[in-house]
């Protein structure tokens, strides 16, 4: 099977890492990796390829940044000739970013079957750009690989046929389990002068939180109160950096403002944290597996298993609610639960198995 995999952003690289490993280990697959160039800073892209030992992409489309329409259109325009050049049997996309939907749409319009990994997640909030990307990509896909049970239910409710839906577990967690020990050896806590469980870790990049200065100010003021209790390590996403600088707030807490971190350093910092605060999708899942309390600074999540089973709590975006949620963690109210089903490090293997089997059964069907 000539399988063309698409990756464009930081979380995509982490998911693609385990898929490339699984496909490269089997003679059945001929994987071709295409980087759209949606993320391009060394610390948002190349660093992940090096640390996770992802093979060099066959092509980088170098689309860069732009409005949703400009970026999505640029990816489609540059991806179409790639499909003509490599003529893959299938295209595989992961996650919910603009690269996901743009390449998915281009592939199906060329008559190429589409695989979506991390299918079926829904925040039920259509103001979120990722929600639109998820709905469209799932509607287009021929194989829908789900990371949690809610994904399966959402797809069935939307009328997708059951035989196209597979609950396989979480490829992002495959990568985490594979690299956790290496991460512990980075020495990042010692380098930063941090004691285990003596600091909090923060990430923020959702447009709904960071694009409007008044909203970002309100959030940062309550987080500054938290930083009076614990040092907060804040690796700042490029979308957020300029907006934070423009706020001109006076900080009282103990802040460690830093550039985006490599995967291994960030994983080590999550693993050692007293508390993680985030609006990231992937970080909610990773803290669930690490058993570290996570406050999600959003009004909803597309990953409900992290709340039902894991250490994640929806703290919302209202400062009083965030403070109360923080106090509950400070008093030790969040306990790790059982892991979501199949978050065991073998999701990419299950995907490879399912693809091999479905092609084999199709071939048998044709011979009959
Ligand atoms: C994108 C995804 C989001 C995902 C996030 C992961 C969409 C719609 N959004 O958001 O779902 O959670 O990636 O991190 O696809 N920039 C740089 N250097 C880079 C990349 C971005 O400076 O390497 C800056 C640019 O100013 C750019 C802004 O960040 O305009 C936003 O980048 P973009 O890829 O459009 O969206 P993200 O916010 O990164
Ligand atoms: N991450 C990282 N360095 C950082 C911040 C995050 O390696 O400085 C990793 C994190 O472990 C997770 C992924 O990036 O696996 C999440 O990406 P992001 O929050 O950008 O995207 P989302 O998951 O929200 O789409």
Separation of the first and last Cα atoms: 21 Å
Give the CATH superfamily of the largest domain.
Glycogen Phosphorylase B
What integer is the average pLDDT? 96
Q: How many domains comprise the coordinates?
A: 2
User: Helix share of residues?
Assistant: 40-55%
Strand order of the largest sheet: 3-2-1-4-5-6-7
Please name the CATH architecture of the largest domain: 3-Layer(aba) Sandwich
Largest sheet: 7 strands, parallel
N-to-C order of helices and strands: EHEHEHEHEHEHEHHEHHEHEHEHEHEHH
Taking all Cα atoms into account, the compactness measure Rg is 20 Å
Proportion of beta-strand residues: 5-15%
**Backbone structural class:** alpha/beta
Ligand types: uridine-diphosphate-N-acetylglucosamine, uridine-5'-diphosphate
- Uncertain runs are 364-368
How would you portray this structure in words?
- The chain has 368 residues and is α/β, with parallel strands linked by helices.
- It folds into two domains: 2-170 and 343-367, 3-Layer(aba) Sandwich (Rossmann fold); 186-330, Glycogen Phosphorylase B (Rossmann fold), CATH 3.40.50.
- The protein is 49% helix and 14% strand.
- It contains 16 helices and 13 strands.
- The protein has helices at 10-24, 46-51, 68-86, 98-109, 129-140, 149-157, 171-184, 188-192, 207-210, 213-229, 238-247, 263-272, 281-290, 305-308, 319-330, 347-367, and strands at 2-7, 30-35, 59-60, 90-94, 114-117, 143-146, 165-167, 200-203, 232-235, 255-258, 275-278, 294-296, 312-314.
- A seven-stranded parallel β-sheet has the order 3-2-1-4-5-6-7, sandwiched between helices.
- Helix 13 (281-290) links the parallel strand 11 (275-278) and strand 12 (294-296).
- Helix 4 runs parallel beside helix 5.
- The longest helix has 21 residues, at 347-367.
- The two termini are 21 Å apart.
- Mean pLDDT is 96; it is low at 364-368.
- Uridine-5'-diphosphate is lined by residues 10-11, 14, 203, 205, 235, 260-261, 263, 266-267, 280-283, 286.
- Uridine-diphosphate-N-acetylglucosamine (UD1) binds at residues 9-11, 38-41, 44, 65, 96-98, 129-130, 205, 238-239.
């Amino acid at each position: 099977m000539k399988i063309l995999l698409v990756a464009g952003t930081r979380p995509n690289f982490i998911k693609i890492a385990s898929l490339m490993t699984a496909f490269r280990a089997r003679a059945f697959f001929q994987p071709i990796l295409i980087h759209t160039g949606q993320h391009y800073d060394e610390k948002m892209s190349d660093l992940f390829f090096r640390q996770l030992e992802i093979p060099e992409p066959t092509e980088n489309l170098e689309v860069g940044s732009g409005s949703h329409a400009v970026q999505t259109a640029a990816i489609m325009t540059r991806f179409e000739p790639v499909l003509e050049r490599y003529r893959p049997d299938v295209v595989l996309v992961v996650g919910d970013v603009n690269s996901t939907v743009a390449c998915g749409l281009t592939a199906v319009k060329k008559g190429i079957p589409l695989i979506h990994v991390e299918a079926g997640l829904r925040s039920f909030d259509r103001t979120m750009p990722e929600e639109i990307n998820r709905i469209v990509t799932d509607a287009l896909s021929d194989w829908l690989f789900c990371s949690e049970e809610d994904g399966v239910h959402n797809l069935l409710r939307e009328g997708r046929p059951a035989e196209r839906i597979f609950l396989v577990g979480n490829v992002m967690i495959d990568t985490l389990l594979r690299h956790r020990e290496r991460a512990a050896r980075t020495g990042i806590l010692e380098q930063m002068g941090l004691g285990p469980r003596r600091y909090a870790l923060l990430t923020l990049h959702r447009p709904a939180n960071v694009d409007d200065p008044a909203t970002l100010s309100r959030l940062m003021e309550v987080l500054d109160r938290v930083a009076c209790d614990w040092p907060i390590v804040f690796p700042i996403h490029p979308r957020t950096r300029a907006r934070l600088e423009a706020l001109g707030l006076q900080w009282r807490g103990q802040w460690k403002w830093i550039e985006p971190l490599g995967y291994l350093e960030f994983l080590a910092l999550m693993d050692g944290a007293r508390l993680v605060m985030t609006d990231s999708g992937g970080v909610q899942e990773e803290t669930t597996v690490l058993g570290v309390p996570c406050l999600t600074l959003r009004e909803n999540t597309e990953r409900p298993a992290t709340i039902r089973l894991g250490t994640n709590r929806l703290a919302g975006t209202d400062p009083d609610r965030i403070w109360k949620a923080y106090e509950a963690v400070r008093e030790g109210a969040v306990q790790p639960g059982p892991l979501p089903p199949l978050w065991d490090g073998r999701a990419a293997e299950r995907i490879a198995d399912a693809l091999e089997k479905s092609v084999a059964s199709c071939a048998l069907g044709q011979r009959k």
